[in-house]
Amino acid sequence: MYFKNKLVAIALFCCAVVSLCADVVHVKLTTMAGEIRFELYPDKAPVTVANFLKYIDGSHFDGGSFYRVVRMDNQEQNNIKIEVIQGGLAQKTDAQSFDPIPLERTNATGLKHLNGTLSMARGDPDSGTSEFFVCINDQPSLDFGGERNPDGQGFAAFGRVISGIDIVRKIQKMRTDIPDPDKLEYTSGQSLLEPVEFLSFKRE
Question: Is the pLDDT at 180 greater than 80, yes or no?
Fold first, then answer.
């Protein structure tokens, strides 16, 4: 009886794993700097993933770019330091943006801003649309309760890099603007002089 119950438990565990894996969505971003592959977690952040896939499936990201990088040496004006690269449609001419989505907080999704995490950029809560970022190293200040955003609500993590983190790090090291030290704004010194264009962003 013990072995029968154990076999049933193992079978149920295997089914759960298969179901979880089936929920993962794989996408590939091809940029001028190289390819980055991500896995997305619709089981944990369904609203954010559905929104992101709307942009991917409609080819809206094609012609977008990584345009902002945050390093330890270019955020003098930021009290809470982070390391990310940010991209999306902000610099694309005639870009289509869909309605903002509700913020899926990390205390609800269970996802954290770890090395390689893919997350939505935002200003106010419930304002995310097409802009996103990738973490370099662990960034707990971006989780719910973190201090990077004054409202303490954190950002919506919804995937992670599964290959191409070397490309992410290469982009982070690219040359950025030199700000006027007397006129520092929140993102001063973090704009790439040559944004890294998205050639395609597709499901795999």
Answer: yes
